[in-house]
Amino acid sequence: MSMSKEIARAKLCLDGKEYELPVLEGTEGERALDIRRLRATTGMVSYDPGVVNTGVCESNITFVDGEKGILRFRGYDIEDLTEHCSFLEVAYLLVHGFLPTPSEYNAFSKLMNLHSMLHEDMRNFFSLYPDHAHPMAILSAMVVSLSTFYPELELDSTEAIDITVARLLSKLRTIAAFSYKKNMGQPIVYPRSDLRYCENFLNMMFHTPVNGYSPDPVITHALNQLLILHADHEQNCSTSVVRTVGSSRANLYASISAGICALWGPLHGGANQRVIEMLESVIKQGLSAATLIERAKDKADPFKLFGFGHRVYKTYDPRAKVAKKICKQVISHMTRTDPLLEIAQELEERAMADAYFQERNLYPNVDFYTGLSYRAMGIPINMFTVMFAIGRLPGWIAQWLEQRDNAENRIVRPRQVYVGPSRRTVAETLNVSTYSHPGKN
Ligand code: ACO
Fold first, then answer.
1. What is the residue with the minimal CA distance to atom 45 of ligand 1?
2. Distance from the CA of 310 to the center of ligand 1, in angstroms?
3. CATH: 2.40.110.10, 3.30.70.330, 3.40.50.360, 2.20.28.60. Which one for 5-55?
4. Quick one: fold of 271-377?
5. pLDDT digit string (tens) for 26-71?
């Protein structure tokens, strides 16, 4: 049963016949042609590579208006949430649909502490990866491994959902910090129950037996904000993967693990790592911002301006606006200046003034400025996409649960337009009826 309203009927004329297709409207006025009965009535499928025009579900979690640059979680503007909420509050909002009361928040926060440890056997896994292993590979493998330790998912009541969500959110943070420590060759630091979510993560990352770690409120606040910016973004590549895997009734851990792999790609969450590498190349290789712009425009060159462009936003990504502000605050707090920030700003100015970028509506996306903040916090480049994954986790879980609870949920199984050879036989192809394969004797 659709939640969107049928507001009209569209006519499709084909082979002398006329078919009616319902036109649906969502709560923010976006309209969709309902083709659910298209194949049954016409024998045809729709053709939409990259799923550019196809709504694959109804969802009440996140609203994006790519033309106006609006992003809302459960009706709240992203700017409002980053200003007034912690990451855990937003995680709760995404999963449950409402902001927690103080007592709900405290209970959720306690669960986070209760479930922050990894099974000691999982610690051994870290020691078996090569030192240079990319932390996204470790993250994905560890998350699917959680299903071997917690095979029974508790999801049949609000309390049970909270336990599973807390377990995943809390352990993902611990896994991420452990993989960093492994990479650095430093002793791992266990989570502490007296620290809140972001402080705890920063402590697990940066505490050493020699130097200790004192939480810095400016950095903790900035990290909360950055994770909120990442927390959900409706049907993006990794979320679609989480939903697709979940549609086969694979468990939550397996679905999230697949989403982490999708996020890793440089055209998606992996772009935040590529942005910094691109900015560093300007200094290391003595390039200029102008050269990068020219390369990005050159169709013979596969180079892209990372952190620019978006499938949905045809204006400035609202997350990038907030991220730019956070990055300036973090840099001035930590190091006062960063030559990479200057290069980034010059790139943005040049791109915004360039006809190529204007005509294609290419603006900075969320990944353009987030990496600069993480870098100033001391987080290494290969951990940037891991930070994105920690932030995106509540969104993935909320979307997975929404799909699971939807009566219309069916296994995702797209169609195709086959363009390969028509039927043929091996005998005709080899042109010898007596030929027999050596392996068959
Ligand atoms: N640099 C140069 N040209 C670009 C860029 C870019 N960053 N992005 C898009 N274009 C050009 C394309 O070449 C294309 O040009 P054409 O019309 O002359 O062929 C046009 O703009 C449209 O771009 P598409 O690739 O068709 O847009 P699509 O919606 O398929 O891809 C994407 C969106 C993947 C984000 C793309 O803009 C891109 O590759 N950006 C760089 C990587 C990046 O920053 N990814 C992070 C996205 S945000 C996120 O996932 C969290």
1. 267
2. 6
3. 2.20.28.60
4. Cytochrome p450-Terp; domain 2 (1.10.230)
5. 999 999 999 999 999 999 999 999 999 999 999 999 999 999 999 9
Contact 78, 87 (CB under 8 A): no
Residue nearest to atom 34 of ligand 1 (CA): 267
CA of 176 to the centre of ligand 1 (A): 29
Task: Parse the chain into domains and list their residue ranges.
Answer: 5-55, 70-268+398-405, 271-377
Give the residue among 68, 160, 170 at the shortest CA–CA distance from 110.
Answer: 170
% of the chain at pLDDT higher than 70? 98
Mutate which of 62, 294, 301, 311 to test ligand 1's pocket (most atoms within 8 Å of Cβ)? 311
Rounded CA gap, 308 and 236, in Å? Answer: 16
Task: Report d(CA 282, CA 179) in Å as an integer.
Answer: 29
pLDDT over 80 at 153, yes or no = no
- The model's pTM is 0.95
Find the largest Cα–Cα distance for the chain. 81
Distance 309 CA to ligand 1 centre (A): 5
Positions annotated as catalytic residues are: 310, 367
Taking CB atoms and a 6 Å cutoff, what residues make up the pocket around ligand 1? 50, 236, 267-269, 271, 296, 304-311, 360, 362, 365-367
Q: How far is the CA of 283 from the centre of ligand 1 (A)?
A: 24
- The pLDDT, as a whole number, for residue 8 is 96
Look at the block and give the residue holding tokens 């603006």. Answer: 363
Q: What is the pLDDT of residues 385-400, one digit of tens each?
A: 999 999 999 999 999 9
For residue 21, list its beta bridge partners.
Answer: 10
Per CATH, 70-268+398-405 and 271-377 having the same topology is answered no
Place of tokens 């891991």: 386
Whole-number Å distance between alpha carbons of 48 and 52: 6
Domain 70-268+398-405 in CATH 1.10.580.10? The answer is yes
What pLDDT sits at residue 440?
59
From 304, 368, 392, the mutation candidate for ligand 1 (largest count of ligand atoms within 8 A of CB) is: 304
